[in-house]
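seq as requested:
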Amino acid sequence: MPDKQAVGDILLSLGNTARAQQDVPAAMEFYQKAATIATSPTTRIQAEVNQLRLLVETDKFDALQALSSKIQTQLAELPPSRTAISARINFAQSLTQFKKKLAQTRPHG
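struct tokens:
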């Protein structure tokens, strides 16, 4: 039986590679699997934050709110670390990008 954490880390890396290659559906799938399989809260949160960023980038706002709430809860539970700080920054950047996109889609007047 393979180490679940190692598999989660590999899936996270595969998601990052797919995203770098502009393969959004594959990246999303890898991130979802990584978040499900990983035993480490930091790997799980990294995968979910990356998913959130993809949802924002591809204007899939319907799935964004539930994932955003889940991430917020999990961020509060992470032990202090460089990875946790990075996840918080990425989360904040994704939310900022979402708010900008939302403002652009609203009718002005």
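The chain has a mean pLDDT of 91.
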